[in-house]
Amino acid sequence: MIDLNRRQLLAGAAAAGAATALTSSLSPARAAVPPAGAQAPGFYRYKVGSYECTSINDGVFLRPVDNFVANIPKEQAEAAAEAAYMPKGMVAVPFNPQLINTGSKLVLIDCGNGVSMLEPSKGRAGRTLQNLAAAGVDPKSIDIVLMSHLHPDHTNGIRAADGSMAFPNAEIMVPAKEWEFWMSPENAAKAESNTMMKNYFANVKKVYAGIESKVTRYDWGKEVAPGITSIATPGHTPGHTSFVVASGDSKILVQADVTNIPEFFLRNPDWHVVYDTDPALAQETRHKFYDMAAAEKATVVGFHFAFPSIGHVEKDGSKYRLIPAVWSPVI
Amino acid sequence: MIDLNRRQLLAGAAAAGAATALTSSLSPARAAVPPAGAQAPGFYRYKVGSYECTSINDGVFLRPVDNFVANIPKEQAEAAAEAAYMPKGMVAVPFNPQLINTGSKLVLIDCGNGVSMLEPSKGRAGRTLQNLAAAGVDPKSIDIVLMSHLHPDHTNGIRAADGSMAFPNAEIMVPAKEWEFWMSPENAAKAESNTMMKNYFANVKKVYAGIESKVTRYDWGKEVAPGITSIATPGHTPGHTSFVVASGDSKILVQADVTNIPEFFLRNPDWHVVYDTDPALAQETRHKFYDMAAAEKATVVGFHFAFPSIGHVEKDGSKYRLIPAVWSPVI
Fold first, then answer.
1. ipTM of the assembly?
2. Which of residues 174-213 of B touch A (CB under 8 A)?
3. Start-end of H helices in chain B
4. Cβ of B32 and A105 within 8 Å?
5. Taking CB atoms and an 8 Å limit, are B32 and A4 in contact across chains?
6. For chain A, is the Cβ count within 10 Å smaller at the N or the C terminus?
């Protein structure tokens, strides 16, 4: 009864196409419908207690595997990318800021690559403003932009296309340790010999030029906005911060970059993404964070998880695995 | 430096809230932004060669675990649901019809639960028409509704709210074996003692009453629409059909119900969903289909996968695992 085998599926479409008249030839003649040519908007709503949260997709950047993982042979990373069905020799890195409406404050946690990335990425990254617009959110209504750390994909979206403030009424909150690190001329001088770090220092300087007074520095272990508590998760950068968002009996962990893409660094928590400032500390943080998240069965939101970027983490021996949340049609 | 432990995260938000003044108190006073209260539209576009495809989310139905898996103890199924972070004692079953624009024909593969399910499901299911509208698709422009089989969640969407045809210009294509099975008075009589089967027979009779002449019956292994080939995958129902959609060098497998939810039946391919007509045959089909899909590294679209319902299947011993596709911001 079953005629299901590799050969049939490989050859099926072509063979059938050659041999079979279309049974649909009796349909009424109508003009063909043109392709839409554009993706659906990238936003997704979920509740945390009484808070309405929105995952905002800034896009997905494709980069060569190359030196993406600093402490393993390139071939091993390429094999992991292939096993995750990424384009040949490439890794796909998603970006997902989170919008939290606490009822009294509208808080944007991280703000993406910025619109200046739209063109060089062929529309793949820098989409936060357009996805906020699709979600019906006026950038002027955002009260706080809460930075997890000062890497470009998290912070450059603070600027609009003309260089003005993308969220003109927002207080900009930055981890105090992070601000201190990137604003130090001594640290910048020490980074001169490392191209990546040098570029990071230059980027922070450029993005924050003239708006230093708009920035509020915050400490770890504090409620930095209503129901949003900063959690020390250093290593990726010296001031890297995650957040607990809590309302009523509900709680989520907004991890930021405790890992980069889960296909690599949850599955292999001892792999080091090339962007880490202190990879050994990042690794230690990662294990502590996920051991806790798995034990607590906590909902984890990851900046670099696939949109809508919400899931749970389970232990798998000394590794971890992400269980993505099922898309809900209602909130 | 790290202060990351279970106690902090459990107690963090509350403790910090009691102890810390909000640093955001300096923000300019503005009216709070009301919650949006509605989910993002559930559609997602992807290309297969020159074809533009759209995954259309009909919703997600919540049902008690109860007898959902016919051949294992209820407790074991409940444990699997809990491990997948489904609501306590429940399973979440997503539904995802696929719209294929071949350039010459607009083909809808399966059509969801129908708008009559919107109210009883509290808006959780029966959303195909509204998500087609969100995607800018006029139901009148659909040329073919291609049924994988005649269970209510796949076929009842053929009717609009007033009972008229939801896709008035569409040819309705049904697997010949499926039509034969459900339209047989002898089979219906035999099913009288089985409530589920009795209801299924009654449903098919009701949904297709008066429109029998609009139905085209198709065979397996044929190109049933441009580039779309029917594949025999019986067991779930006698005429259950999957499809290869092929254009240029690209190809996907639209599996329909080779499994119900992957968290249960890909991970445990020998578990039998209660809805199977011939569970042993469905199990045999499942292994053949996924052994082939894994070997071919084929893109698989599953009606009951989490939206956007696209992924790859990898072997994991005698089991399988779904690797969901990463949401792409561009098509």
1. 0.92
2. none
3. 6-19, 74-83, 128-134, 152-155, 176-183, 185-190, 195-207, 262-265, 279-296
4. yes
5. no
6. N
